[in-house]
């Protein structure tokens, strides 16, 4: 699996906290259809993230600094945001999450700061590529480099798409 950036908040901005909390109630739909999905309506005093760029830059930094920790960090980011309601645009939080997956906090921060501009450009390029390919939802999985499955889906739905692709491949169509 390859994770690519797709910006949920392309610009740094804060919206009304009450509106943001109401938005997070939409997370309950995927949680209701997929038991393994963990979502919590925003209920902490932590402010909402003002941009998704820092989290994407942090994930790319981890992938360069310690490729073995990249997947764990990505999952840690998702849990921090969707389950723990953490402000993942805050570098102090991003450093704490890096430490949670075994990285040295100071080394991670220095490494990220040194590469932040270049990695932010990569993030924006990946986002723009996705938009050009017609991707409009998060998550989107592209199966076999041809079939985009957009939005939160039940595992059974994804399995059916994969089965259909395999059947077509086996049938030569």
Global structural class: mainly alpha
Average pLDDT confidence is: 86
CATH class placement of the largest domain: Mainly Alpha
CATH architectural arrangement of the largest domain: Orthogonal Bundle
End-to-end distance, in Å?
Answer: 25 Å
Task: Name the helix and strand elements from N-terminus to C-terminus, one letter apiece.
Answer: HHHHHHEEH
Largest sheet descriptor: 2 strands, antiparallel
Beta strands, count: 2
The helical percent reads 40-55%
| Radius of gyration based on Cα positions | 17 Å
Global outline:
globular
The neighbouring-strand order within the major sheet is 1-2
- CATH level-4 homologous superfamily of the largest domain: putative protein disulfide isomerase domain
Identify low-pLDDT runs. Answer: none
- Alpha plus pi helix count: 7
Can you put this structure into words, describing what you see?
The protein is mainly α and 173 residues long. The protein folds into two domains: 1-132, putative protein disulfide isomerase domain (Cyclin A, domain 1); 133-173, no CATH class. Helices cover 55% and strands 5% of the residues. The protein contains seven helices and two strands, in the order H-H-H-H-H-H-E-E-H. The protein has helices at residues 17-24, 28-33, 53-65, 70-82, 91-100, 105-132, 155-171, and strands spanning 140-143, 147-150. It has a two-stranded antiparallel sheet. The longest helix is centred in the C-terminal third of the chain and has 28 residues, at 105-132. It is globular and about 55 Å long.
């Amino acid at each position: 699996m390859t994770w690519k950036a797709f910006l949920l908040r392309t610009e740094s901005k804060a919206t009304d906290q009450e509106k943001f909390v109401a938005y997070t109630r939409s997370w309950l739909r995927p949680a209701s259809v997929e038991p393994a999905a963990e979502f919590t309506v925003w209920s902490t005093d932590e402010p909402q993230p003002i941009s998704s760029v820092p989290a994407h830059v942090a994930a790319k930094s981890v992938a360069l600094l310690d490729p073995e920790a990249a997947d764990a960090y990505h999952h840690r980011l998702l849990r921090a945001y969707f389950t723990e309601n953490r402000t993942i645009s805050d570098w102090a939080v991003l450093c704490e999450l890096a430490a949670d997956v075994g990285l040295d906090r100071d080394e991670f921060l220095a490494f990220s700061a040194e590469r932040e501009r270049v990695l932010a450009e990569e993030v924006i390029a990946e986002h723009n590529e996705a938009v050009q390919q017609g991707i409009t939802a998060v998550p989107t999985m592209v199966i076999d480099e041809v079939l985009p499955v957009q939005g939160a889906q039940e595992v059974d739905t994804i399995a059916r798409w994969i089965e259909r692709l395999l059947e077509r491949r086996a049938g030569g169509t």
